[in-house]
Amino acid sequence: MTAIRIAAVSGSLRASSINTALLRTIASGAPEGVTVELVSLGALPLFNPIWRRICPKPSRSCAQRLLPRTG
Q1: DSSP annotation of 67
Q2: Which residues are CB-contacts of 30 (< 8 A; sequence separation ≥ 6)?
Q3: Distance CA 6, CA 55 (A)
């Protein structure tokens, strides 16, 4: 059976966010074979068109967690 990986992203940065709490609850109750990883947007910089060529480290890190991995 193929393992299922789900990236859970909350749009809120508040520590007491109901949306983030819901995602944590979902992650803790995931069935066997399903991994739910909470991805924080808090470290991402604001949009800057110059960064299309030079990707800041927090953006690269987030993209690596969200993009499918092969091999």
Answers
A1: S
A2: 6, 36
A3: 24
